[in-house]
Amino acid sequence: MTRVALTGNGAVALALKQVEPDVMAAYPITPQTEIAQNYAQYVADGAVKTEYIAVESEHSAMSSAIGAAAAGARTVTATSSQGFALMWEMLYIAASLRLPITMPVITRALSGPINIHCDHSDSMGGRDSGWIQLYGEDAQEGYDNAIQAFRIAEHMDVRLPVMTMIDGFIISGAIGPLETVADEDVKNFVGEYQALNPLLNVEQPVTVGAFDSLGGWYFEHKVAQNRAMENAMGVIEEVGAEYGVLTGRDYAHFKTHEIEDAEVVLIAIGSAAGNVKSVVDQLRANGKKVGMMKVRTLRPFPYLQIAEALSGARAIGVMDRADSFGAQGGPLYLEVRSAMLEAQSRPQIFNFIYGLGGRDIFPNDIESAVETLERAAAGEKVSPTRHYLNVREG
Amino acid sequence: MAKPKEIAERPERLTGGHRLCAGCGAPIAVRQIMSVCPGPAVVSVATGCLEVSTTIYPYSAWRDSMIHSAFENAAATISGVETAYRSLHKQGKIREDMYFVAFGGDGGTYDIGLQALSGAVERGHNFVYVCYDNGAYMNTGFQRSSATPCGAWTTTSPVGKEAAGKQQNRKDLAQILVAHDIPYVATASPHNFKDMMNKAEKAFTTPGPAFLNVISPCPRGWRTPSDQSVALAKEAVQSCYWPLYEVEYGKYKINYKPREGKKTPVADWMKKQGRFAHLFKPGNEQLLEDIQDYIDRKWEELLKKEECL
After folding, report:
1. What is the pLDDT of residue A393?
2. CATH of the domain spanning B4-308, picked from 3.50.50.60, 3.40.50.620, 3.40.50.970, 3.40.309.10
3. Residue A394 within any structural domain of the chain
4. What is the CATH classification number for the domain harbouring A280?
5. How is chain B split into domains, by residue range?
6. Chain A residues near residue B79 by CB distance under 8 angstroms
7. Is the pLDDT of residue A215 over 90?
8. What is the pLDDT confidence band of residue B68, given thresholds at 50, 70 and 90?
9. What is the pLDDT of residue B235?
């Protein structure tokens, strides 16, 4: 294990280099660009065997990744924001063709108005595309998730694409400490790629992406796709535990902190989880019964485990860095609120929207969310509509 | 090229039993082109008639591996397949020589797929792109594309008090590909199978990207009898509506030139197609003249290009 200083993008690009996939297709977009250019440099230096496709758009990035993966190659791409949106059509096709492509997503706001900074509007928009979604808090988690993604995607009970998120700029551009895994250990961990029904098998030609309309098996294919998602639930945990044995950093669907006797709990996803944790620690020092949960797996959503973990709380605050316009709240809130119908007890659940377009979030914003939850827990009537953190009034 | 008789004895690579219409130009082009493909291939097909009619799940008419992913990305998809091949070949995981070909209609090529095609040929992937140009979005029921000829009726260039079909000339796609400076660009027609197969063989064996634009009569959209498709393709060539030429490393060669005075009026060809019927009613004489002038101008330009380049 070596300790280095790298940006979040540098960490993710390094993880991909160590896996050394057969094909990388990428298009530059802020804040992902560093991954595209670092990888191009690895190829230019002869440091990897990978063939690099410098595509002319993200739609073609995902289309060529689909072609390469269907051909039988271990394939990656990476994107952000508008690029993610442009890929949207192909995300569904990659998943439905059951191609184990992996893709780091450096999260960024969606236009309009144009804004290059972090929020989760891009990846949250793809949450129903059939991709497994893993969110990381920092560069270390971005690196670790990028490696584990191959094992999860390529598992024969899963065979679904995996996207791994880190927050744009906040993580992607910030230099921080990274514990790296030795190249050989990464190679052994991901193992040799096993293609399934590849186009390039001349002994057994295949048709991929056939017309499956009325009278066909479309419905059954969708049922099988969701079954693979359900299988992924256990596989993600197995792979996370095995990675823990290798590195000392084990991964589950989520992580809780100070939750056992907590009356109020904040839930966060992405880099804000670190901010929430430090506020929780401070409030605990002042005797407040506050806890937190950091969500890693959004798809498949571990709703039963989350309901069990949170059933002791009196009030829950779900923090969303994206909104779902016209819905009851942001995407993570909707998931958690729905999951809590499975809980033994029924805590009150509130939504806090924060950080859109890269707006900062400060400790006092998080404290104000906790205060709101405490008022609700004490029996005060609190509005069930969205609460915004650090938004200008008027 | 091998003798046609010998080629005809080779196993079919697109089998019978597909659901394309009688008289459709697309499977004729596919069979002629694939018959000279020198080895196993992977075929990428854009969404459209050819794709939906040849891969009705759980059946497939393709004897080679085939992939369809979406409408606008047949070129991007095959660029991924070809890159995967290069990667695995370099690593010694695949030993055979393989060939890569994409088929798209004019909607999937001239319009929505133009960017992916431009990107893939600029990157220099070793593949052949074939456009089967039937001059409209026939699969969705005859909507105009940028390949639809001037004056043609389609459901989105309808005929009415204010309009006599499509108001604009066609996009000259082959010239756009020539402008990419790729090794090989050619036009072809199913009536001249020897010429088409010759060009397909060149396209397959020339390293780097190659582009073939094939006229593909569509009885449903052209409003023509299904037994007239090949004859109509021939007349399109004889009128110079669809000149047969090739551009090899920038050098032009016209493969068919009507003898002096034998270039047929384009109106004769149009008159046989229901999509142009409205043009032969009184009041459209000027439009017919303009259409002929345009075809003459394009033909003269091509002759000059052959002479100079």
Report:
1. 83
2. 3.40.50.970
3. no
4. 3.40.50.920
5. 4-308
6. 53, 55, 60, 64, 67
7. no
8. very high
9. 98
Query: Are residues A259 and A243 part of one domain?
Result: no
Helix (H) or strand (E) holding A167: strand A162-167
- Are A209 and A311 part of one and the same domain? no
One domain, residues A237 and A288: no
Residue ending a domain, among A185, A219, A247, is A247
Which positions in chain B touch A212 (Cβ < 8 Å)? 57
Report the alpha-carbon distance of residue B198 to residue B32 in Å, rounded. Answer: 10
Residue A63 has its nearest CB partner, among B40, B52, B77, at: B77
Interior angle at CA B73, CA B205 and CA B111, nearest 5: 100
Give which of B20, B63, B77 to mutate to test A binding, by max A Cβ within 10 Å: B77
Q: How far is B199 from B187, CA to CA, in rounded Å?
A: 9
Contacts of A76 in chain B (CB under 8 A): none
What is the Cα–Cα distance from A110 to A357, expressed in whole angstroms?
A: 8
Cβ contact B122:B180 at 8 Å: yes
The pLDDT value recorded for residue B1 is 81
CATH number of the domain to which A215 belongs:
3.40.50.970
Report d(CA B158, CA A320) in Å as an integer: 50
A77 and A188 together in one domain: yes
Give the number of domains in chain A. 2
Residues B233 and B29 sit within 8 Å (Cβ to Cβ): no
Q: Are residues A45 and A186 in the same domain?
A: yes
Q: What is the pLDDT of residues A62-115, one digit of tens each?
A: 999 999 999 999 999 999 999 999 999 999 999 999 999 999 999 999 999 999
Q: Judge: B88–A206 Cβ closer than 8 Å, yes or no.
A: no
Q: Which of A87, A109, A342, A272 is nearest to B72 (CA)?
A: A87
Q: What is the arrangement of strands in the sheet containing A264-268, beginning at the earlier edge strand?
A: A254-257, A290-295, A264-268, A315-320, A348-353, A387-388
Considering CB atoms only, which of A50, A63, A73 is closest to B76? A63
Q: How far apart are CA A371 and CA A365, in angstroms?
A: 10
How far A328 CA sits from the closest chain B CA (Å)? 34
Q: Are residues A14 and A141 in the same domain?
A: yes
Distance from CA of A311 to the nearest CA of B (A): 44
Average pLDDT over residues A384-394: 92
Shared domain check, A258 and A211: no
Region of B240 please: left (phi>0), alpha (psi -120 to 50) or beta: left
Statement: residue A1 has pLDDT above 80: no
The whole-angstrom distance between residue B57's C-alpha and the CA centroid of its chain comes to: 26
Q: Is the pLDDT of residue A394 over 80?
A: no
Name the residue range of residue A212's domain. 2-247
Residue (of B72, B24, B10, B43) closest to B204 by Cα position: B43
Domain membership flag for residue A393? no
DSSP code at position A90 = H
Any CB–CB contact under 8 A between A43 and chain B? no
